[in-house]
Amino acid sequence: MMATLQTDQLKQLKAIFMRFDMDSDGSLTHLELAALLRSLGLKPTGDQIHIILHNMDSNGNGYVEFDELVNLILPDLKEEILINQEQLLEVFQSFDRDGNGYITAAELAGSMAKMGHPLSYRELTEMMREADTNGDGVISFNEFANIMAKSATDFLGLKVAAA
Question: Where would I find the EF-hand domain in this sequence (predicted)?
Fold first, then answer.
């Protein structure tokens, strides 16, 4: 479970990294890093970007290589994922009302409504489609964990800024 979660996250990170490595030289400049952080919803000042770059740049060449980005981000992820496995299971079980190990669309809709987030039919369909990666019409714990990990990856940028 851990390993697959990490390879997925590494793939996502690699894709993000490559998108902003404009000259494809395997490293991010100050400006490319700034663009990457902004894409994650952060608005660091010039000074903050210098500090972030300095913190990441372990080989001191003035650029951020992919492994430097990973080294900064993954330790946080590992901790979060380990802690969250149990919490995740609890959340999953609260959604899985009949306890059969799967979340149906009806269970998802019911739980979201109970939490004060009623879903429109379209939102429900989209959530189910995104989560149900093997297309069997229900969400298994693994599928649930992957979706949660994906939204954690969306918050990753906040981690970088806080570092």
Answer: 8-43, 44-79, 83-118, 119-154
